[in-house]
Amino acid sequence: MPAAQVPSVAGHGDGARCASVWRWSGVKAADADHTSTRADHRPSLGGALLTTSGLTKSFRGFTAVNGVDLQVREGSVHALVGPNGAGKTTLFNLLTGFLAPSSGTVTLAGQDVTGLPPEKMAHLGVARSFQITSLFDQLTATEHLELALQSSTGQGLKFWRSDVLMGRFADRSAELLEEVGLSDQAHEPAGALAYGRKRALELAIALALEPRLLLLDEPTAGMGIEDVSRTIELVRRVAVGRTVVFVDHNMHVVGSLADQVTVLQQGRVLAEGPYDAVRTDPRVITAYLGEEQDD
Ligand SMILES: Nc1ncnc2c1ncn2[C@@H]1O[C@H](COP(=O)(O)OP(=O)(O)OP(=O)(O)O)[C@@H](O)[C@H]1O
Question: How far is the CA of 87 from the centre of ligand 1 (A)?
């Protein structure tokens, strides 16, 4: 794998691999340049938008997420990190309703949303962008957004659509494409877009839901260094005025974007705090980055 690439991880439980991911990202704990992290420019953050309490998920006796208490503050960018198999994806699925917890609660803006299915979570303003691209190759970027905007009206997809409504969708989709830097490729079929541009289109589709909470599953997975940089800038831009939770293995991305980092290990919260505090936390170094420190 080229040095600049960040892997899309499918395997589990490999600490050495995590240390390598740190290295592949081109940043080591000691020399990471975080002089311009998002956290440095932050206005003061609000109260908790999303809270979990004792959140637990077991699969046939194996506990993948174990008593997680999480607080995501309104307006923050919050990263979930941890070694392979730590429970990040499972927690992500619990937050978005793709999995129902075995026990514990999820609260969104004070409302108990535990166990609500994804479509209900979406109606409450929780949008998720997937790691695996889920676009239709033949549809243009604009068409994808018009469909997303139409379905977000809650009226489902219709073949008959009023000109007024379609005009509104066209205006909004142009704005969204502009927001993610895709205006020039608005009329290209998604299948013709480069990988990084596809991910940007998926982000625009998630934004079409006007989310209160945006969840990004490994936004830079599989990208080369140039696309990683573009994506960092893009997420910074779209995070303004929004609350974002993301999972990423690339520590440069985490350090560049996150106000708050939660480190998971074996389904539990190992450490939590601003990136610089977490990356120097001896428990995290031992559990997660230990091998890299010895290089
Ligand atoms: N549906 C399932 N059935 C059984 N075990 C599961 C299931 N989903 C996840 N697990 C197990 O739960 C643990 C946590 O998995 P999860 O995918 O949440 O970790 P992760 O931190 O996202 O890992 P990675 O970084 O490799 O994506 C792993 O040991 C995994 O094998």
Answer: 6
**Residue for token pair 């938008």:** 49
How many whole angstroms separate alpha carbon 82 and alpha carbon 248?
Answer: 9
Reported ipTM: the value is: 0.97
Burial (0-12, 13-18, 19+ Cβ within 10 Å), 226? exposed
Q: What is the pLDDT of residues 55-96, one digit of tens each?
A: 999 999 899 999 999 999 999 999 999 988 899 999 999 999
C-beta neighbour count of 105 within 10 angstroms: 14
CA of 89 to the centre of ligand 1 (A): 7
Quote the pTM value: 0.80
Q: Would you give the end-to-end CA distance of the chain in angstroms?
A: 19
Residue 10 Cα to ligand 1 middle (Å): 9
Calculate ∠ Cα 118-274-79, nearest 5°: 25
| 3-state class (DSSP) for residue 189 | strand
Taking only the tens place, the pLDDT of each residue in 139-149 is 999 999 988 88
For each of the domains in the chain, give its residue range(s) and CATH number, in order of start: 15-125+211-293 (3.40.50.300)
> DSSP character for 122?
H
pLDDT digits (tens, 9 = 90+) for 154-212: 655 555 556 666 677 888 999 999 989 999 999 999 999 998 899 899 989 888 888 89
Smallest CA-to-CA distance from 92 within 271, 238, 219 is with: 219
Name all residues whose Cβ lies below 6 A of ligand 1: 9, 11-12, 59, 62, 64, 82, 84-90
Ligand 1: which atom is nearest the Cα of residue 92?
18
